[in-house]
Write a structure and sequence with these properties.
This protein is α/β, with parallel strands linked by helices. It has a single domain (about 5-250), classed as Rossmann fold (3-Layer(aba) Sandwich). It contains 8 helices and 8 strands. The chain has helices spanning about 5-15, 40-50, 80-90, 125-130, 150-155, 170-180, 200-205, 220-235, and strands at about 30, 50-55, 70-75, 95-100, 115-120, 135-145, 180-195, 235-250. It has an 8-stranded mixed sheet, with helices on both faces. Strand 5 (about 115-120), helix 4 (about 125-130) and strand 6 (about 135-145) form a beta-alpha-beta unit. This is Class I SAM-dependent methyltransferase. GO terms for molecular function: methyltransferase activity. Pfam families: Methyltransf_11. It comes from Microbacterium aquimaris.
Length: about 250
């Protein structure tokens, strides 16, 4: 039997949104994956590093996919539920999890790591990444690109023309270079998102809180009803995400 609008709201509102695992959405929403296989490439680089730092690790799910880690392996995270989840997942693998506010400075010495990584960081402090990298060290990350999921965001907030340029890979490359890094590789992808019910929308907007700041079921009930009716009539709500893979190097001394 098809879930009612109210039941879908309740389902999305009660779901656990800790960590950075989106498997709860299986059957309710889907997103194409980038073609480059970030987790696989990350695992390969970790196997060859001597000291690694994963910034804004979420619940540590992507980092934990690697088979081996360097002798010194650290991850940072700011959100307390994610810190707890990452600690449970990563400590048994020998990775130290540091609660960090995601603001400069990173709590590490200069030139402490030969590999700094991140998957979908909310903020990127290029000067700090350069500082903690050893000469010849690498920053390897998958970033969210410009106007990602804006079809959904603008459904709730209205047009956001000034925000559409944010996170553009050209701008990020320029910022990395200004901080003293060399761009080794940059790849981009635009990916299809299909959302099949408003439970998925509630879950996403509770989890990715910067998409629609201040979102709650109560204050957005009317727009959620409009979206529910649209899905019932027209089928899945279609949006698009953008991603870029970036590899940057601190020049050798």
């Amino acid at each position: 039997m098809t879930e009612t609008f109210e039941a879908l709201l309740e389902t999305g509102a009660c779901a656990d949104v800790s960590g950075w695992d989106f498997s709860w959405l299986d059957g309710r929403a889907s997103e194409q994956r980038p073609p480059w296989g970030y987790a696989r490439q990350l695992a390969d680089r970790l196997s060859r590093a001597s000291a690694s730092l994963d910034v804004q690790t979420g619940g540590g799910e992507v980092l934990a996919e690697a088979a081996t880690f360097p002798a010194t392996a650290v991850a940072t995270e700011s959100w307390p539920p994610n810190v707890a989840k990452a600690t449970r997942l990563l400590h048994p693998r020998g990775i130290v999890v540091v609660a960090d506010p995601d603001e400069p400075p990173l709590p590490f010495a200069d030139e402490a790591f030969d590999l700094v990584t991140s998957r979908h960081p909310a903020t990127i402090w290029w000067d700090e990444i350069t500082r903690v990298l050893r000469p010849g060290g690498t920053y390897f990350a998958q970033h969210v690109g410009p106007a990602s999921a804006f079809e959904l965001i603008e459904f709730f907030l209205g047009p956001q023309p000034d925000a559409r340029r944010a996170r553009h890979p050209d701008d990020e490359a320029a910022a990395a270079e200004a901080a003293g890094l060399e761009i080794v590789d940059m790849r981009t992808a635009r990916l299809r998102i299909e959302i099949h019910d408003v439970a998925a929308v509630v879950y996403l907007l509770r989890k990715v809180i910067w998409w629609v700041p201040g979102f709650s079921v109560e204050t957005s009930r009317e727009r959620l009803r409009d979206l529910h009716d649209r899905i019932q009539t027209d089928g899945p709500f279609i949006a698009h995400s953008t991603r870029h893979l970036i590899e940057a190097r601190r020049p050798p001394a």
